[in-house]
Amino acid sequence: MNKQELSISVIMPYVNEWPQIAFTIRALREELEGICPFEIVVVDNYCAEIENQSEGIVPDRGHDSYIKNKKRLPFYNINDSVKESATFNIGHLKAQSKVLPWLKHCRFEDKLSHWNAKNIGVLNSTGDLLLFLDAHVVPSHGSIKWQYQTFVENLNQDESFKYNTIHLPLSYHILEQKRLIYKLVWDSVHGVAHYSFTSFKEKSVKPRSIESRLFEVPCMSTCGMMMHRDLFTFLDGWPPGLGIYGGGENFMNFTMAIMGFKKFVSRFGTLHHHGDKRGYSFYWDDYHRNRMIATSIFGGAEMLVRYQESLAGPHNQHTYELMQKAWKVTKTQRELLLPYPKITIDEWAEKWLKEVK
Predict the structure, then answer these.
(1) What whole-number distance in Å separates Cα of residue 131 and Cα of residue 165?
(2) Cα(305)–Cα(308) distance, rounded to whole angstroms?
(3) Distance of alpha carbon 338 from its chain centroid, rounded?
């Protein structure tokens, strides 16, 4: 397989993240240009409009702050030969996507969940490899090039590598040197398969590696995750019932685990976060319903019941109803994946923790 035969689609939902997203897109283009065919698919997941313009607040879809009234304006910073103009409320990214062949734009007036926005991005993409990013990150120089080349090299050696993922370590302050990964948090009694942050150290991951450049981890953020389209298709994307908080990464990490697929973190490069003003607020029901949705797929009914009972006891009607909804909305995906697990989640977690120690 020729390296250049593989293309990349970067999938990037965004909510109220202007102008950070412009820096992210520019950095990505400079990283990817000349390496392989690529596209960046941005999903405007109901960004704030211009209701408060009279108060001097800059609307979030990417308009210049000096514009005070709704009016037609010419495109700027694009090919001079383009004669078309855009209305004020179209947004800069959508306008640019009309003339930049590597930029695609999807816009939604009804707010999707974060995970459904990613699913929509994939449906509107064409790349062989999918790279999922948030709209407020900047990759360290060369990190995505290395991530891509390593994926291709391993796929050339073993086609089954397409069912694994490669992730970039994270930093949450753009100037800091700390590199973060996930560690496994597991409580079999209470039906918990989760994760928490830890500093990247070789002793915190399994000792085996691929040419000493990749280290296997039990779980990792989907921000900075590169996967083959065939894996996304096999998993049928993220469960459509997921909301914003929790669940999406639980589903991806632990469903892959029971299938015998692996998550690798790169030894080089970092994905730096440079801002976050999305305006989300924590919602208890959303968080735990999402966790239940994920658990119902990778842990089945028995583990789902353990998790529900650990929240508020076996007779709590509210958590029971959340559990019933989670079980119902995952029926199709459970049945799709049911024939394939190679190990139970409890067996996998016990094995992982034993090997790391």
Answers:
(1) 10
(2) 5
(3) 24
Rounded Cα gap, residues 189 and 327, in angstroms: 20
Residues 259 and 163 sit within 8 Å (Cβ to Cβ): yes
Using DSSP's 3-state secondary structure scheme, residue 122 falls into helix
**Which tokens is 68 given?**
């005070």
From the list 250, 249, 258, 256, the residue with the least C-alpha distance to 347 is 258
With a pLDDT cut of 70, the percent of the chain lying above it is 82
Tens digits of residue pLDDT in 169-190: 999 888 888 899 999 999 999 9
Name the DSSP class of 241: T
With a cut of 50, say whether residue 68 has pLDDT above it.
no
- The pLDDT assigned to 278 comes to 56
In angstroms, the CA 102 to CA 252 distance is 27
Output the pLDDT for position 67.
41
The domains of the chain are located at 7-135
Exposure class string for 130-162: b at 16+ Cβ within 10 A, else e: bbbbbbbbbbbeebbbbbbebbbebbeeeeebb
Give the list of residues 6+ apart from residue 205 with CB closer than 8 angstroms, or none: 181, 215, 216, 217, 265, 356
User: For the segment 260-282, what is each residue's pLDDT rounded down to a tens digit?
Assistant: 999 999 988 999 998 655 556 67
Contact residues for 269 (Cβ-Cβ < 8 A; gap 6+)? 139, 140, 142, 143, 144, 146, 147, 168, 169
With tokens 């009309």, the residue in question is 98
Mean pLDDT, all residues of the chain: 84
Q: What is the pLDDT of residues 185-208, one digit of tens each?
A: 999 999 999 999 999 887 777 755
Q: How many CA atoms lie within 13 A of 294 on its CB side?
A: 29
C-alpha span between 156 and 210 (Å, rounded): 13
How many whole angstroms separate alpha carbon 237 and alpha carbon 259?
15
pLDDT, tens digit, for every residue of 316-328?
899 999 999 999 9
H or E, element range at 231: helix 229-235
Helix/strand/coil for 148: helix
The runs of H, that is alpha helices, within 259-341 are 284-298, 300-312, 317-329, 331-337
